[in-house]
Write a structure and sequence with these properties.
alpha+beta, Alpha-Beta Plaits, 4-stranded antiparallel beta sheet, 12 strands
């Protein structure tokens, strides 16, 4: 039996949750950002999007673009809780549910038809329950694999329902712009346009050998995806992750090296935790810093082995900071891991490594249960408490602890 995959995407998720929980915001242009005055817009309502507000704008820039914009402080707990509860609804229809990001999920409903109506019937029931329960809308795509289901869902936003049968895949893809394929961003879109490729139909007919010479293995991937084929055969269609990083912008510029390094430790621990969650290790690390005039620099270093240990990452990135002669105070710091590979179990014969692995396992479990930063290294007490909104790409891995 051919698979039937459903993709569910909550429309303008963070902003929609805020509007639903605050009726006075309904129908108004709303943007969600962190508490820090220097943080950027991470989400906006459709009313704001139509008037020029984009993700990544500074608060000041967004306000200058749209003086009537209402900026609300993000609430991570509220978004994670809503995500988990939405997925509890999805689990009524199939146990095969994958949280793809905080506002997106996939369902394999192939085995659900003996118990529930048609795919469209399931989709309408889900849309109604999400609307009735949370006051937000979602867009749903249905297809023979995750790739087609996601593209279908995106094509119907907002509040849409698009179903593509296996035999309709080629015709559906043919007229879409190449940017509809996950992983093809602006830069690659421009590069393809320079080759005369604008639509997926044109990409279908373009020589794979030329794409491979221009883009490497990714050229093979996009050619397959234009045909509606998932080239990687895994749960996340699109380009595989090549790096994992975190950054923070400070309320006030900082120049004290002890404070700077405590923030580097904080970022390194965040990157390590993310690597462990993703089941990845890295052997390359970079440190990014930005001055008040917005000039930005990055310094990189590789080590002989792979790790997901936050303390080890800090030793590398902290050493990078020690080698830098700062010309001014800094407004932003970032730590990124690259040269990734899947993690492998450490032999219990390596006592020190096993001890560190067990320590992080306990720390991760505590933070999963009681919330991020519930337990951390004492050095991080030097850091002022920061408030930032989780990335929309964040995936809750467990039931949300604040609902226990």
């Amino acid at each position: 039996m051919d698979k039937t995959i459903m993709y569910i995407d909550a429309d303008a998720f963070f902003a929609s949750v805020e509007q639903a929980s605050r009726p006075n915001l309904l129908g108004k242009p709303v943007a969600v950002a962190g508490r820090n005055k220097r943080t950027v817009v991470v989400a906006s309502s459709y009313e704001a999007k139509r008037l020029g507000i984009k993700t990544g704008m500074t608060k000041g820039g967004a306000k200058r673009t749209l003086p009537s914009l209402i900026i609300v402080e993000g609430n991570n707990e509220k978004y994670v809780d809503t995500c988990v509860r939405i997925n509890e609804i999805l689990l009524k229809y199939t146990p095969e549910v994958e949280i793809y990001s905080i506002d997106e999920s996939f369902m394999d409903i192939t085995g659900s038809f003996p118990f529930f109506p048609s795919p469209a019937g399931i989709a309408h029931a889900i849309k109604k329950e999400i609307k009735d329960t949370f006051g937000i809308t979602c867009s749903i795509g249905i297809g023979p694999n995750r790739l087609i289901a996601k593209i279908a869902g995106e094509s119907g936003k907002p509040d849409g329902l698009v179903m593509v049968k296996k035999e309709e895949t080629r015709g559906f893809m043919k007229e879409l712009p190449v940017g509809a394929i996950p992983g093809i961003g602006k830069r690659m879109g421009v590069a393809l346009k320079d080759l005369g490729v604008i639509t997926c139909g044109e990409l279908l007919d373009f020589p794979v050998s030329v794409l491979r010479r221009r883009f490497g293995i990714w050229g093979d991937y996009v050619s397959l995806m234009a045909q509606g084929i998932e080239p990687l055969g895994d749960k996340r269609s699109g380009r595989p992750s090549t790096s994992i990083g975190h950054s923070m912008t400070f309320e006030e510029d900082i120049g004290d090296r002890a404070t700077i390094k405590s923030h580097i430790l904080e970022l390194s621990e965040m990157v390590g935790r993310r690597l462990r969650k993703e089941g990845m290790t890295a052997r390359g690390f970079s440190l990014t810093w930005r001055y008040p005039d917005f000039t930005t620099y990055t310094k990189r270093c590789s080590i002989p082995f792979h790790t997901q240990d936050g303390k080890m990452i800090y030793q590398v990135t902290g050493t990078l900071m020690d080698s830098i002669r700062l010309k001014d105070r800094i407004r932003l710091l970032g730590v990124t891991a690259f040269n990734l590979q899947k993690s492998m179990a450490i032999s219990p014969l390596i006592e020190k490594s096993d001890k560190g692995e067990r320590l992080y396992k306990v720390m991760d479990t505590i933070n999963d249960i009681f919330g991020e930063h519930s337990i951390h290294r004492a050095t991080l007490l030097l850091c002022r408490k920061h408030h930032w909104v989780i990335s929309p790409a964040y995936r809750p891995y467990k039931s949300y602890p604040f609902r226990r």
